[in-house]
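Example 5.3 — Aminotransferase class I and II
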Amino acid sequence: MNPLLSRLQPYPFERLRALMQDIVPNPALRPVSLGIGEPKHATPQFLKDRLSATLAGLAAYPATAGLPEMRAACAAWVQRRYGVSVNPATEVLPVNGSREALFALAQTVIDPTRDADRGGPVVVCPNPFYQIYEGAAYLGGATPVFANSDPARNFAADWNQIDEATWARTQLLYVCSPGNPAGAVVPLDEWARLFELSDRHGFVIASDECYSEIWFRDEPPLGALQAAQQLGRDFTRLVVLTSLSKRSNVPGLRSGFVAGDAQILKNFLLYRTYHGSAMATPVQHASIAAWNDEAHVVENRALYRTKFAQVTPVLAEVMDVALPDAAFYLWARVPDDVCGGSDTTFARELLRQYNVAVLPGSYLAREAHGVNPGAGRIRMALVAEVDECLEAAQRIAAFIRAQREPA
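Solution (predicted structure tokens):
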């Protein structure tokens, strides 16, 4: 067996199931789950219609590079959304959701034999982070190194925690903007610094932008390709990954695309050809329809804005939580006087007493630089309908107030 598999840690939801295995939730209350970030809004009917109308495409093997029409639709969306022109033939590649592409990209770009005399290659990740980054690093023969989030800077990653010797060994940097779990968006000046580091040390930047279409501020989140253009750069060593899962409420469709550096995408296509990663033709046709339509995205974003506007104030009365820049999570601090400030105890007791599931923040992070930056926090995925999320918020507030009452 591949010995690198032993380095993989249980996924957060496996740990959550283990944490809750002896808990009997309050049977008097219907269960409400805010634990998993799986969109629950309705899939647009026109996407389902398009998928079913093109099932004849299952009779042929799809090309790994995707249909020209698929690549053109992705490129056209990048132009409309970011004002950035990408070549659909060389700078766009369909992928089966951003998750598998985030993993496969590391296997493409990491050279495990390089820097052996200095401790081996490094992959830098934000912390907390999407666990695929860590697993991709390990199985690519690299070591993940973490930049902790800074609460004083809207939970942006503190890249200053990575020293020059580590940057010199870095082959891949994962950036998540808008971020999971705090929803922070990387600003232009930070992109400028990351690009300068990439130029100096030669590492690839993979920008995970799967939450880009759910935002709460006046302006949509800045994208990495957009930042590069504004800074007068080309896409050298830059790859952006995005998905329809959150944008169009089709996580089961497994559809997204990568865009950016043409040479990296050429090698990525070669890897994917052997990996067997071609997207089914009916899925491509449904995806084309999705990328070409913005009306359903505007409606979806409005649902989230309504939901967050109602839920956030209820929780802000009893705990440290604020409206994020983007994405569909609330990243809340467990009060010190509730469950001893423990995120795991809070999650257990909340499920036991109020039948609401949340994810302990410590499960989304690793101890780095002496701390686990997710400890003492919980992530709440506001993916259910408005009424259900509001009910969950009211139960959480009641739970916290009950914990604070004198015995």
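Remark. The chain has a mean pLDDT of 96.
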